[in-house]
Structures are given as C-alpha cells and as structure tokens.
Design brief:
Layout lengths: L1 E5 L8 E3 L9 E10 L2 H7 L10 E2 L3 E9 L11 E4 L2 E2 L13 E2 L11 E5 L3 E3 L6 H4 L3 H14 L7 E4 L5 H12 L3 E6 L2 H9 L4 E4 L5 H9 L2 E6 L6 H7 E9 L12 H6 L3 E4 L5 H14 L5 E6 L3 H10 L5 E5 L2
Parallel strand pairs: 11-12, 11-14, 12-13, 14-15, 15-16, 17-18
Antiparallel strand pairs: 1-2, 1-4, 3-5, 3-9, 3-18, 5-6, 6-10, 7-8
Helix pairs in contact: 3-4
C-alpha cells in the first residue's frame, strides 16, 4: 500500500510503498479514504513531540471503510463507513488520561496510508450528513474542542464565550460547538478576514489581537465572559483573566505563545475563577461529540484538500498558519 512514512526527523514527507498491516483478534482494517493533518504532525516531523517512534506513518484523523475484522470483532463492521477515534488507552479515570495514553500516528502507525489497523472499540459510524472528506476533519480537533469547550469550560446556552486564535481546526470547532449550544460567541485573531469568517459561522463578533487595546475593545463589545477557551498562553493570558466575569471558567488546550503570565493573582482568587487544563478527551466524550455533531448537523470547515503525494506541501501550509479550517489529504 502507499503511505507517508517518516523515517528520519525533519525529513520531507513522501509516498512510500509498504505492506498492508496485519490485524490482531480485537482489531479491524480500515481502507482510508481521507485523512486530516494536525499541528501534531508538524511537531512530530520536526522532532518537537514526545514519544516519537521511527519509522512511523503519520496521521491521527481518518475516515474510510472497514475491509477486514479480527476474530473477536463482529463481521457486521465489514463495509461500514467509519471514522476513527484517535484517542488510545485513555484509561479508567474520565478526568485524566492514563500513563500509557497515546494518540494514533505515533507510536502506532496512523492514517496517512491506504490502510490502517485500529482496535475495533475506536470505530464509530461516519455521520450520514458528512462526506468522507468532511468526516476525516473532526476526530482529533473536534474531540479536543468538545472537551475544552463543553466539558471543561462547561459553556452553556446564553453565556458569553470567548475563543482565542481563530483559524485553526480546534478553535473553529470550539466556535461551532458553542454556537450550536446557544452561546454568544466571540473570537480573537491576528487576521481580520478570519474574524469575518468566524462571524459567518455564527460568532457575534471578534477583535484583532494585534490592536493595542484589543482587550478593551472586546470588553466593550461583550461585557465580559463566563467561559473562555484559550490556545495561546503567553503574556496575553493576563488579559483573559481581566475579561473573565466573576466565577468564570478559562480552559486552555495549548500554549502557542509559550509560558503564560496570569497577571495579578488576586484577580483570580477574588473573582473565583477556574483555570482548567484540557487535552484531547475520553471515549465517552468522543461518543458525546459525535452525537452532538449528528444532532446539530455540524459540518467541519475544510480549508483545502491535497493528494497524498502532496503531503509535504500540505504540512508546510499547516506550519505557516495561513489556513482557515482543516487541511485534508485524499488517500484513495
């Protein structure tokens, strides 16, 4: 089969011919139709991610058709159109992942290939309102967003919700989930065009964080926030503390700006704020997210589709941060 195999760090992505994987009794073989990139793939390529095993087939997200099942798996799965939960070995505690938790795409071969083997328990039926292309776009980013926005930040209908750094796949899902839940959603971005696109998705408004007084603009626009979902960290985090209403919740799933400055500590404890870390999500949350997507007919935003042979061009675009939505690879 054809696959993108990373054999060395900082190696350009190229198609290689490899053997179709053999499955164990509790596994299935999925013929991948489309796979989506995540920033995680960029970090693995550059050696900036923990637990990298080489050689490795990259890719956490994929949609396709089950072609083979193990001895302990129902044959009813054969021929089903599916998406894959890339969150492996979460463990028994729904609040935090186990020590052996990993994500598909390292150390286990991932979805940038014609076929991938996965545990049958990670399979879910593809939403009928989504194409294979669209369905490939939501597993990792969607799960990260759902846990951070709906579970950790606990965004509720009627509340003001701020999503920072709009444009990437996770942040866009945060917007789509919060809008579907009936929240008043606001965004930040360094690109006015991305803010306009977020408003077209249902956000009430947004500000450009390159503006000197962006936080004051946002406060005047919204009145403050019950829930904030942040991926940036850095020195701007202190402004999020100011923007949070009393008893507000700030969930953070990334730190693109590095070590964060929380500002004056008294503002956090006097306002009774919750600062909440969030990473990926457990199996129950994946199922909840999928049900939410089905119920609300949410359609992932796809920025561009590349052929598998052009994976290097795709990952360079992701690294540049110019995309609005998910970057997807056509496998089959």
């Amino acid at each position: 089969m054809q696959a993108i195999v990373l054999e060395e760090l900082n190696q350009k992505l190229a198609v290689k011919q490899v053997e179709i994987p053999a499955i164990a009794d509790n596994e299935v073989l999925v013929n991948i139709k489309y796979a989506a990139l995540n920033h995680r793939d960029v970090w693995i390529q550059k050696g900036q991610y923990g637990g990298i095993v080489l050689p490795i087939i990259l890719g956490a997200d994929g949609s396709g058709i089950v072609t083979k099942v193990g001895a302990n798996v129902s044959a009813d799965w054969i021929g089903k159109e599916v998406v894959i939960n890339p969150s492996m070995n979460w463990g028994n505690n729904p609040r935090v992942q186990a020590k052996d938790y990993v994500i598909l795409g390292t150390p286990h071969d991932g979805t940038f290939a014609e076929y991938v083997k996965v545990a049958a328990k990670l399979l879910h039926l593809k939403p009928s309102h989504l194409s294979f292309e669209q369905a490939a776009a939501f597993p990792l980013a969607g799960l990260t967003s759902f846990r951070a926005t709906m579970k950790r930040a606990a965004a509720k209908a009627g509340e003001n919700v701020l999503i920072t750094g709009i444009g990437g796949g996770v942040a866009l899902f945060c917007v789509q989930f919060a809008v579907a839940a009936g929240c008043n959603v606001y965004v930040t971005s360094g690109d006015d065009e991305k803010i306009a696109k977020a408003i077209a998705l249902g956000a009430k408004g947004g500000v450009n964080y390159k503006n000197q007084n962006w936080d004051k603009e946002l406060k005047a626009m919204s009145g403050g926030f019950e829930a904030i979902v942040d991926s940036s960290g850095g020195d701007t985090f202190a402004k999020l503390v100011d923007l949070a209403k009393p008893a507000g919740r700030i969930a953070m799933y990334g730190a693109t700006l590095g070590v964060f400055n929380s500002g004056v500590p008294a503002k956090i404890f006097w306002k009774q704020l919750d600062i909440l870390g969030s990473t990926m999500g457990n199996d129950e949350e994946f199922a909840e997210m999928l049900a939410f997507i089905n119920e609300n007919k949410i359609v992932p935003v796809v920025d561009e589709v590349f052929e598998l042979a052009h994976a290097q061009t795709a990952i360079e675009k992701m690294s540049s941060g110019k995309q609005f939505g998910k970057i997807v690879l056509r496998i089959d």
